[in-house]
Specification:
The protein is mostly helical. The chain has one domain. It has nine helices and no strands.
Length: 208
Amino acid sequence: MIPASYTTLTAAIFVAGGLLTCFGGYRLFRFVLGLYGFMAGAILAASAFGSGNTWTLIMAILVGGIVGAIVMVVAYFVAVGLVGAALAATLLNLGWRAVGGEPPTLVVVIVCVVGAVVALRAVRYVVVCGTAIAGSWTFFVGATALLGNPKALLAASVPDIWVVYPIELVPANMMVVVGWIALAIAGMVVQFKTTSSTGKKKKEQISK
């Protein structure tokens, strides 16, 4: 668990990183990969060490975050497929939960594979949509945590994978859900408009 005294800082990083990802994820994809790799590495490190000496835990989080960032940036091409897989899995869960229950594991795996394949064939569209949705959610987790929402505070401070795969953390307050979707759409619109003239060049860079 991230020390309570650092929860506000963590939430602020979520807010800033979420907005940057939502509106500039495609142009800054390498940086975004590093940022989310750092978050994932820090979460895994915090989970592995659990509670204990604060400074030891902080060092573990920093080291884990740096390693995670390096892995994500190095695995640049693979990360495009991961974005597609994550986006497909998120949409599957949202759709499945609308009718009740959880999708079978086999279905999730198949959808993730399909999402990864599609992502590699439609890089720009998948990266824009994926970063807009992830950035919007990250922003709302941080923003609601700063405002004192209990679930968001939990998401910002506990090494829980649902921070980056948010289906279980969707709050009952529909205004937050609507805000998440609205901000994600706004991010997509901005990214598509600002990258339309350079999309081909960026796609070539990502494929290298």
